[in-house]
Amino acid sequence: MTKEKKSALQEKGGVSISEITNRKSIENLKQKRKVKLDAKTLLTDILQGDVAALSRGITLVESVNSKHIAIGNKLLKTCLPYANKSIRIGITGVPGVGKSTFIEAFGKHLTSQGKRVAVLAIDPTSSITKGSILGDKTRMEALVKDENAFIRPSPSGHSLGGVARKTRESIVLCEAAGFDIIIIETVGVGQSETTVHSMVDFFLLLKLSGAGDELQGIKRGIIEMADAIVINKADGDNEKKAKFAANEFSRALKLYPEKESKWSPKVSVCSALNHVGITLIWSMITDYICVTTKNGHFDIKRQKQNKFWLIQTIESQLKSDFFNQPKIKKALESQLILIENNHTTPFAAAEFLLKLKA
Amino acid sequence: MTKEKKSALQEKGGVSISEITNRKSIENLKQKRKVKLDAKTLLTDILQGDVAALSRGITLVESVNSKHIAIGNKLLKTCLPYANKSIRIGITGVPGVGKSTFIEAFGKHLTSQGKRVAVLAIDPTSSITKGSILGDKTRMEALVKDENAFIRPSPSGHSLGGVARKTRESIVLCEAAGFDIIIIETVGVGQSETTVHSMVDFFLLLKLSGAGDELQGIKRGIIEMADAIVINKADGDNEKKAKFAANEFSRALKLYPEKESKWSPKVSVCSALNHVGITLIWSMITDYICVTTKNGHFDIKRQKQNKFWLIQTIESQLKSDFFNQPKIKKALESQLILIENNHTTPFAAAEFLLKLKA
């Protein structure tokens, strides 16, 4: 047997077939294995909450193999009527802020209330070998063992767009499998927070208390996106500092214009390690769901997100179709030099390039 | 003679030609008039600082007539080597903040120092009859009379993109005409601040002191763009409130991450009406120019802006080429309904639409 296993969908090398093996039964076995990848069977299993089937489904959705993609798309389509029923929570924070510890404490709190929790991740830097799953699985030990929890690492992919799409589609499958809460975690590389923000109902920013100047160094635009800022590691000597930081953030948040959802972002402290403050955070999120369901914004936001993904996917395809043409690449370079030397305007250069379009 | 004059480039109706008129001399006259619209002559006149020629040049650039556009493009191209030499300042603020009074006081201060000042505007809501020129010309009386000042209203156009392009190109002509300072004013409708921000070196936000909660109601993203916030109408009873507001803003600005330019946005108070605080604002801007010229960011920013306009123009053309196809419009509507009813995903819908592409 080969030791390396690149994908759950890949057949193992296996032992060589001896002459006395019943070839027919092998065919049967192969047929049976194939059946497992049949969209209809997978759907039935997923709808029953079968986590193994869910895993296989997500693997299909994440695949680059065209056959698998076709089955994945079929599966997605049939799962859609059962989707849309969870609460989607985005969680971000710099490395070291205690995201895994927080998600474990938060997830355990939810499963103890009978909820089923799925944890997905968006990490555009992850690869199959160097994914966040290993880290998460060791760090979220209690949640991994919890039968009401499902943890899935970030799909690997070259572009954030690709990773995002796979995660967005995995949400559909998790919802069809009956998960009540979907947590999407991100490490905050590049535009990944914006990406997560555009696929969740509630966006939570995890922070640490710092040296007093709390908002310095926060990435541009993150505060505007946050529905809550939670200062983690509010334990021991840190507790006082954390409360001070919370005040600072509360003050800062007031300076921002009101959100369309009419929700005023909240600030909270917690110690994920000691499981302190977790209940409050969950009650804050249920408040949010109440407020936005009542004023209609919950559904409006999801519709807007769907439209965003539709337009976004089209636009990025149109752009890459254009800018990836070798002749455009070459001409763009020379036009930029002409602009730099004041020999053409950006508008004249744009017209020139558009005329080259295939 | 017709009373209405839709464009400076349009021939007037004129009186009917009597039989005794020398037809040859009329031809000569017409020829002479045509010559005025010749790019080469215009260039010569503009380079000599001829404001009438500059006006005509801008009218050509703003025209929708294809002949005029052709001459305008030629003129632009020949003006380019003489462009790029001014300081471009963007000024925004809600109606009532005193933009015109400020620009007049500021402009007069600059001309009194021997500078030549051009004031352009971006107002996507303006039209030929309802432009901001009438307002500006009455409000900026002293500046209008100043021979070192040139005031031009917002070009009319249906889209912000169109208006922006015309203004961006007018800057080139103003610079070729030897203007040292180009002020671009905007009323702040829609995305117009972002548009102005992407064509200026320095972006100034005019504010009034309010009821204490100064940052409430400021449009998202404006603060991040500002290189300076100036509290106007700091006169009489307002002076104290204005200083309080300035403190509030200073505090808030510290909460934002450092700008690429390494420039920390400044807060200042002024009374444009009483010409108080204007000198300080100008010295703040010259400081900015010093700092960013020294660290290279002044040129980097302009290069980035040029690239932005190039890519922006291409992308918006690609999008409008796609989304304006009648069959795409129709299919988009039905795909959105399918998404809304959970019958398709945004990604599958995007693929479907892209396949319809002409």
TrEMBL record, chains A, B:
Domain called AAA+ ATPase: residue spans: 85-236
Asked if Hydrolase is a keyword of the record, the answer is yes
Q: Which UniProt keywords apply?
A: Hydrolase
Give the CDD domains listed for this entry. MMAA-like (cd03114)
E.C. code: 3.6.5.-
Annotated GO MF terms = GTP binding; GTPase activity
Q: What Pfam families does UniProt report for this protein, alphabetically?
A: MeaB (PF03308)
InterPro entries annotated for this entry? Answer: AAA+_ATPase, GTPase_ArgK, P-loop_NTPase
Report the SUPFAM superfamilies cross-referenced here.
Answer: P-loop containing nucleoside triphosphate hydrolases
Annotated Gene Ontology cellular component terms: cytoplasm
Q: Its family?
A: Belongs to the SIMIBI class G3E GTPase family. ArgK/MeaB subfamily.
Q: What is this protein called?
A: Methylmalonyl Co-A mutase-associated GTPase MeaB
Source organism phylogeny: Bacteria, Pseudomonadati, Bacteroidota, Flavobacteriia, Flavobacteriales
Coding gene? meaB
